[in-house]
TrEMBL record:
This is Transposase. One of its GO terms (biological process) is DNA transposition. It comes from Nocardioides zeae. Gene3D superfamilies: Homeodomain-like. The lineage of its organism: Bacteria, Bacillati, Actinomycetota, Actinomycetes, Propionibacteriales. InterPro entries: Homeodomain-like_sf, Transposase_8.
Length: 76
């Protein structure tokens, strides 16, 4: 499995993708940064969830849910 990209790099790529001109496609931005289009799409989607634009569980909520599941398993 490839090493994950640093968060700063992800943030920069997402910022560029959000501020792109209408004629520029995500595929071109992804190629410019050396990542796949699906990777960029996933990052954009996760950012929208974190910003509250799209419904879904944020990273903080996911971490909290994992911890709660561990506690429940321990108590059972």
């Amino acid at each position: 499995m490839p090493k994950p990209y640093p968060q700063e790099f992800r943030d920069d790529v997402v910022r560029v993708a959000r501020n792109r001109e209408p004629a520029v496609h995500l595929k071109q931005i992804a190629a410019d940064f050396g990542i796949s289009e699906s990777c960029l799409t996933n990052w954009l989607s996760k950012t929208e969830v974190e910003d509250g634009v799209k419904p879904g569980a944020t990273v903080g909520q996911s971490v909290e849910n994992r911890e709660l599941c561990k506690r429940v398993r321990l108590l059972e």
